[in-house]
Write a structure and sequence with these properties.
This protein has 219 residues and is mainly α. Helices cover 64% and strands 0% of the residues. The two termini are 34 Å apart.
Length: 219
């Protein structure tokens, strides 16, 4: 189906999917036409920061490079979770006390199921600190939970432009593609997430299932 015959919302999703894929050049996504968005699912779960995060040093870039290497080399799940928590802690850091306070309030609003309040707070953080990766990621998650894939994809692209290794955003991208029926794109996004963080929960099972659907079983 040509894009000019699609509904405006579907057209925007198709354009944004292409934009997000451009932000992750390692993954070669097929140029299939987007599918109709299915009904919302009752439960959705995206990778998110642990409730308690460790203190981390100030050398953020060097610290992340080291931690991503340690994450891949982690000998067991306990070690991996410890390293993963340190990565989340670095992503959550911001030099702005105001942005940090707004993020705390946005998290509290989401937990209280006050999505509109949380969205306004995250809008303020993104406006205040457009370089703050985790603000984009948190807002992408909120949009996803609201079934607003257009805006979620926009924010995922902003995350991956700034941090291509953000396994939470990559997993979220895979879930959106899966919801849209784009199983090949979902598989590639999940594989990219696992290449960064081999210890993601449930993602290996999703990769196995999608591999059988997309590529077939080994003979």
């Amino acid at each position: 189906m040509a894009l000019r015959f699609l509904q405006p919302r579907t057209c925007r999703i198709a354009i944004l999917v292409a934009a997000v894929m451009t932000a992750v050049p390692v993954v070669a996504f097929a140029q299939n036409d987007p599918r109709v968005i299915p009904p919302p699912k009752s439960q959705k779960k995206l990778p998110e920061a642990p409730s308690k995060l460790p203190n981390v040093g100030a050398d953020r870039t060097r610290g992340l490079d080291f931690l991503f290497g340690a994450l891949k080399a982690a000998p067991d799940e306990a070690s991996a979770k410890h390293v993963e928590a340190r990565i989340w802690a670095l992503w959550m850091q911001t030099p702005s006390d105001t942005a940090a306070l707004l993020m705390v309030r946005a998290k509290a609003a989401m937990e209280a199921q006050k999505a509109d309040v949380a969205l306004k707070l995250l809008d303020a953080v993104v406006k205040l600190r457009p370089d703050y990766v985790e603000a984009w990621n948190r807002r992408a998650t909120l949009y996803y939970l609201k079934n607003d894939y257009v805006h979620s994809l926009e924010d995922i692209r902003q995350v991956l432009v700034r941090e291509p290794r953000h396994f939470g955003a990559l997993a979220g991208l895979g879930m959106i593609m899966q919801d849209l029926g784009e199983e090949k794109r979902a598989l590639e996004a999940f594989r990219k997430a696992l290449a960064v963080n081999p210890h993601l929960e449930k993602v290996p099972e999703l990769v196995k299932t999608l591999t059988e659907k997309v590529e077939g079983r080994d003979i």
